Structures are given as structure tokens and as C-alpha cells.
Amino acid sequence: MNKKHIEEATDYFKKQTTNKPTIGVILGSGLGDFVELLTDTVTIPYADIPHFPVSTVAGHHGELVFGTLNDKQIVAMRGRVHYYEGNEMHEVTFPVRVMRLLGVDSLVVTNAAGGINKSFTPGDFMLLTDHINQMGTNPLIGPNEAFFGERFTDLSEAYDSTYIQHAIECAEKLNISLKKGTYVANTGPTYETPAEVRMLRTLGGDAVGMSTVPEVIVARHMSMRVLGISCISNMAAGILNTPLSHEEVIETTGKARTNFLSLLKEILITLPEE
Ligand code: HPA
Q1: Which atom of ligand 1 is nearest to the CA of 112?
Q2: ∠ CA 75-144-24 to the nearest 5 degrees?
Q3: For the segment 234-247, what is each residue's pLDDT rounded down to a tens digit?
Q4: Which atom of ligand 1 is nearest to the CA of 236?
Q5: pLDDT tens by residue, 166-175
Q6: Is residue 232 lining ligand 1, measured as CB closer than 6 Å?
């Protein structure tokens, strides 16, 4: 991690916008339209931001959007960068560090994920109650920058229990079905084999994806409160008799879009921050 680079990117934003976000949102594959709900927006392409990593995946925009949702000041990442693109872990998590320096203390992470739990259906939403890091690495490896957090980060409540309860109440209010479960992060870029999916189910996983966990770990290092939601875009390999494709992922998240936007909006405008 390069603290100076993080500070330079933060200073760049402070020159571009007077918005002082307290909530950060990371929008996963096919979920970027959320930014259209924000008002008074300032949009900055990742490529313009000093030291910011740039996303290369089709369907992932690469821009940071500052805006307002009711009375909440929000900064949203439309598209994230992934480890499988060849980025280092400190690059994947760089935006979360910058968000923290901008004043964000609540992070809402979203993603598209494959359903491992057989009671799930594509198009379902799953609230992350915990995760399993199967990436074989950790973004906090390396010298600890004490300015940001402690050497050994407690992950016994990676996902904030108050936020989990809040999200459940929002879903009930809107009559949107919200499953709960453990998210497994693999590096990708391959989807899993059926044998790997059986293994992950045995390990206690409910959904599997290629992101989110690095950002959550770094957010927890900096004592941010985290809420995570997956859109189950497909059933993981071997569960149904159909091949997996990125097109299916984008198509399913596209269909779930309206409910996803309503749920996320409700969660954010009433998010308990203290
Ligand atoms: N596996 C891993 N990552 C994913 C999947 C999947 O089935 N679907 C969407 N992202």
C-alpha cells in the first residue's frame, strides 16, 4: 500500500467536488444503474484519477459518482476492479482506502454471484452474513499502515449486524425477498467446476463470486461498517444442466434491476449512521 498515492487521489477528489460522502457503495456487474437515482452528481472516470486502477471487463463501467440520495451524501463506484484482471490486492482495494479518507464510514458492497444453496433461484438477492476467503491471499499482507488500522483485524462481525437487521426490515417493507448466506470469494476468472461447487457447499458457502472480500477486509481494517448484497445471477456450476456465461450474469442482474434499485435505495436513505 502506498499511503501517499491514496492521499493524492483523495486530494484530487476534494478539488473536484464539495460533496462529503459518508456512505460508499460498490456496484457490481450489471448493477451500475443505481447512480441514476443520485442527484447533484459529479462523475469522474477512474482513468482521470491519480493512481486509480482501471477496470477492463465489459459491462463494468469505470467511474466514481458523487451524489445525493435524499439527505445522504454518497460516493458510488460504478464498476470495480478485480484481482483476476491482474491487479494487485492493494490496487483492488485502493478505492476503499480513498473512500475512507474522504470521510466514508459505511460501505455497501454489491456483486453478482452464483448460487450454491439449492434453495436459491437466479434473480434472488442474498444478504451477506459472513464470507469465506478462498482467494489464497489477503489484501492486508505486507507492512501494516497503523494510520489506517491494526495489524490483526477482527472479522468476527465483518458484516454489521445492525445493517443486516436494517436491510431485512427494508426488504420486508418493500415485499422483496431477501435470502441470507455466506459468500465465498474465488479469484476467477474461471467459473467453478461442479466438484468445486460441491466442496464449497460442504464448507458452508451459499453463493460464490470473484470479488467483494478484498474490499470488505480492507474496510474492516479501517473500522468501516459493512453491508453486503449479492444478486444471484445464475446457479453455480453443476447445479442446473446448463453452461455458465457472463451474458447470463448480465441478463439476470438486468432483470432483477428494478427490485435491486428499490431495495438499495430504501436501505440507503434510512441507513442508521451514528
Ligand atoms: N461463480 C463465480 N463468480 C460468479 C458466478 C459464479 O457462478 N456468477 C457470477 N459471478
Answers
A1: 9
A2: 10
A3: 999 999 978 888 88
A4: 7
A5: 999 999 999 9
A6: no
85 catalytically annotated:
yes
DSSP code of residue 36:
G
**Residue pair 6/13 in contact by the 8 Å Cβ criterion:** no
d(CA 172, CA 78): 27
163 is catalytic: no
- All cell numbers assigned to 16: 473536484
Q: What is the grid cell recorded at 13?
A: 477528489
The three grid cell numbers given for residue 141, joined into one nine-digit string: 499482507
Structural contact between residues 255 and 202, judged by C-beta atoms closer than 8 angstroms: no
Residue 225 DSSP one-character state: E
pTM of the prediction? 0.95
Q: What is the dihedral of CA 122, 111, 271, 34, to 10 degrees?
A: -90
pLDDT digits (tens, 9 = 90+) for 116-139: 999 999 999 999 999 999 999 999
Measured in Å, residue 15 CA sits from the centre of ligand 1 at 38
Decide: residue 38, CB within 10 A, 0-12 exposed, 13-18 middle, 19+ buried.
buried
Q: Please indicate whether residue 84 is annotated as part of the active site.
A: yes
* Among protein residues, the one whose CA lies closest to atom 5 of ligand 1: 114
Please choose, from the candidates 229, 269, 221, 213, the residue with its C-alpha nearest in 3D space to the C-alpha of residue 23: 269
Residue of 61, 84, 88, 145 marked active site: 84
